[in-house]
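Morning F.,

Quick status update on the modeling queue. The single chain you submitted on Monday has been processed. Sequence for confirmation:
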Amino acid sequence: MYRFLLSRQWVILTLVALLLIPTMIRLGFWQLHRYEERTARNDLVAEALGADPVPVERLTAPGQKITTGERYRTVSAKGRFDTADEVVVRRRTNADDEVGYHVLTPFVLDDGKVLLVNRGWIAADGPSQTEFPKIPAPPSGEVTVTGRMMPDETTEASGIKDLKGLPDRQIMLINSEQEAERLDASVLGGYIVLTAPEPKGGAPELIGRPGNEDAALNFAYAIQWWLFSAAVPVGWWFLVRREVRDRAEATRDAEAEAAQPAAV
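Structure tokens below.
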């Protein structure tokens, strides 16, 4: 009754089914791993955002790398903005996915070191991308700023190419080592995303808090892949039973036709 399983068509179908089962199981575990990674990142971000503010020089120093645990920590600093050496970061979007610039302003601390401050987003509404845009001025004189600590941007981590030959005072990546060379100053590692003081008139537009990654979606995908893997043998058995039924019906029809008397 089941000799048809040895046919070329059924051997191929069975082999495909046998390959699909472990493949789908592995994909389920991969999605579960992604769920655990994203959950851990969400917990780390929430912990950093909820931590008490600390002076910036507790977390960074010239040439120092910002760790994963220090990212998004709220820090404070006292000094003054240096708008003469201000630059803009090209091809950055706001919450509405509008393309513009991030405004990067050196902030000179009381001890002379420089902290890079991303003051927020402005629209690219100038006559051309080669001209330096008009930027609302930050507070003058000595002020205290707070912001979220961020690591230096790199092409490897961000996927943004560090293009050369850009117009004056325009950059692609926020990198403290490059800025230290440009400014010829002692620049603290990483940079901060400004949260206070808020700009007058809402410009530059402050960058919002990082959102949670959708870890639950990866967990749902893991369950989905495992359900698919369980459905493969069920589907294979359903096809086998249907083939047996169809062959049995065809045999009965052939026998019935053979049993009918020949027409005179």
